[in-house]
Amino acid sequence: MSEDGSGEGPVGRIKEKLIRSKQKTAEEGRHLTGTPDKAHVRRLPPGQNLVKKWPVLDLGIQPDIPKQEWSLEVTGLVANPANWNFEDFLKLPQSQFTSDIHCVTTWSLYDNRWDGVAARTILELVQPHSEARHVIFHAHDGYTTNIRREVFEEPDVIIAHSWEGKPLSREHGGPVRAVVPKWYFWKSAKWLRAIEFSDVDKPGFWEQNGYHNEADPWKEERYS
Q1: pLDDT at 101
Q2: SS3 for the chain, per residue?
Q3: Of 55, 127, 152, 209, which is the most buried if we count CB atoms within 10 A?
């Protein structure tokens, strides 16, 4: 895969190497402590290590999407499909949340301040049908990931355009990314371009490559 996502090239080789490494990690069950914290007694989930700086992790591809070209489509089983450009997105009711994030690669970062549009606001606007029990995020790099609708409905889930009061950088998924803070962070798709509501589950990229379909850090749902 080349830098633009096709053919062979250095980015493609990096991507394949990273995928193989993560698949091996899943196959070997690394980082599992065997001591889940289902009651959330501790703030730090089992097997996690606290960091002070937000690490950059991706598949070797960082799409560069100018804000004037970005849009978010909300599609699938909804009464009111939507397609907002960045200017329209900023005109939607805005929210701010502070939350911790937990990566399956074992780092956690406390107290992240996000600005954007709450998932609950999107739900109110598009009105998903009752049978739409699954939500699939689609990213500009071809990445997808899935969560249950009840997870999307959590009050701290946000479609974010800013972190710590500044626009999201390209390396961290800007201009807009999903943030699902109570789940491992691979569920929080970077470079978001679409949100799909579906009556069937559609496991995404990592869910098809050895990672758990649910991804609750306190239950150590790292791998399938």
Answers
A1: 97
A2: CCCCCCCCCHHHHHHHHHHHHHHHHHHHCCCCCCCCCCCCCCCCCCCCEECCCCCCCCCCCCCCCCHHHCEEEEEECECCCEEEEHHHHHHCCCEEEEEEEECCCCEEEEEEEEEEEEHHHHHHHHCECCCCCEEEEEECCCCEEEEEHHHHCCCCCEEEEEECCEECCHHHCCCCEEECCCCCHHHCCCCEEEEEEECCCCCCCHHHCCECCCCCHHHCCCEC
A3: 152
